[in-house]
Amino acid sequence: MGDIVAQRLSRRSVLAGLAAAAGTAITSPWPRALAHGSSLTFQEIPQGGGPDHAVAPGYRADVLLRWGDPVLPGAPAFDPRAMSVDGQRMQFGYNADYVAYLPLPRWSTSPEHGLLFVNHEYTNRELMWPGLQAWDATTEAQARIEMAAHGASIVEVRKEAGRWRAVPDGILNRRLTALDTLVHVSGPAAGHARMRTKADPTGRTVVGTLNNCAGGTTPWGTVLTCEENFDLYFAGDPARTSEPDRFRRYGIGEKLLYSWHLNDSRFDIEAEPNEPNRFGWVVEYDPYFPDVPPVKRTALGRFKHEGATTVISADGRLAVYSGDDDEFDYLYRFVSDRPVDPENRLANHDLLDRGTLSVARFNADGTMDWLPLVYGQNGLDRSNGFARQADVLIETRRAADVLGATPMDRPEDVETNPRTGRVYVMLTINRERSEARIDAANPRADNRFGHILELAPPGDGPVRDHSADQYRWDVFILAGDPSEAGHGARYHPDVSKDGWLTNPDNCAFDLRGRLWISTDQDTDQYDRGVSDGIYACDTTGPGRALTRFFYRGPIGAECPGLCFTPDGRTLFCAVQHPAEGSTLAAPATRWPDFAEGMPPRPSVVAITKEDGGEIGS
Length: 617
Ligand code: FEO
Ligand code: CA
Ligand code: CA
Fold this sequence. Notes:
disordered N terminus; mainly beta; six-stranded mixed sheet; about 10% helix; nine-stranded antiparallel sheet; Neuraminidase
């Protein structure tokens, strides 16, 4: 491993101040912690954990939206003893994940009035109802509440006298759910025989969207919300279907988190084998035209999409990056056939239906290739069971296997630095990787801590060729504790005892091109006594890869959905699954209400600077 890392890190002095250390273990940097060159001025908070959240001195972290808060007119106040399906479908959903801020009025850059699009990935029944464990079956009524708590909430928000508030009767407020939102299907797989079910013989309309994890926004102001672990919802034995291996490649039949199939046969693969083919897509939704149905864009492939982030390439076409969040799965890129039309919003409405999806292969010499997933090319034909492009897209993972893509350590968020045009890939964990399977881009066996890769498309400066067949790449950070030689961690040598991180998951760039990273240690945080949170670092200059600890969530939570307002003065983030790992009988925290009888509530937090200045300035 050391040789591979040394080879990658010493190729050029990518980590400022680190080149001399490349190939050698970095000793504890703590005595040098104050002698840093970071452009970030906040004072770090200590690592640790507890029932409440915490932010750097001089900042505020205000809870803006909680599970159960009213979203639509007529929504009841949240009452954990009297939850109902009709109430939940009008209230803020559970486990907020992706957060997007869309200014109001439309096309403005208003930093103090807008819509928040927040998706709701999954539910924790053990923290919603007393007496339930995480894997227990729910009643039909509870299952329908779970379905209504999935999806997304769109809520108008305003900043007044420096504080954000939700507008519960905003005319654009909406809920999308897994219960009853009709979602259209477009692109090459729409209407294909394998997309048809008894309830939808057209294969073009799906009820609901599942397990919406991260996402992205488009240059024309729509949101991309991404279906991730859809396998957890489908019951049945793949061996009793005609396509057992194709279910297994997505993990269907291995873990079942929900009991919805007991009341709805479309979640039983033996009764409705095509229903899982209708999930695992990127969903486009336009919060400014909220009654136009969301659309599953099949040209972007079917896998466990962490997110889908966009960047306009040098030739004007749109590139969309997306990680497939599973051990040994892949990193993908879609490039539209047509350029984005900046003048005519409607001209972009089907831009994501035509283009080329590719998968990444990383080479040890610092180059990487994008391999096109195109029917008829490189074995993606009948010899491997693909009869048309729709098959390639429905079975994206298997098509990528055929091409020889590089199996990664759980690719999560991907973001492009608006100042440099370089692309950053969060790889969160892979404890299954053996010494025999390490490679240059995934250089540690039993990768407990995750890492971050930096991709350089051809070009120089913020506008690069994101449609090129080949990029260069490098390791940006190997996460873990740099004072523990066994971790094999690598950062800027001045990272402090509070500034190192594990399990990078989601990220965002601020206006100055600094990288903000949220972590997801899962329930390991109980073992370490260290909560997940938000870290930040420069990606260029003397503070490159010098991560600093900014915000800590309550125990059990992760903090995805990082989103800056256009003025850089507010950072929204989600606080997902507070108290996960405990149950309602003795929750690890009752954040954010801290009231007896109130459960912990996943929320969205607005972080501002007390002097009203730019975050991180
Ligand atoms: Fe839902 Fe990959 O995190
Ligand atoms: Ca995530
Ligand atoms: Ca995660």
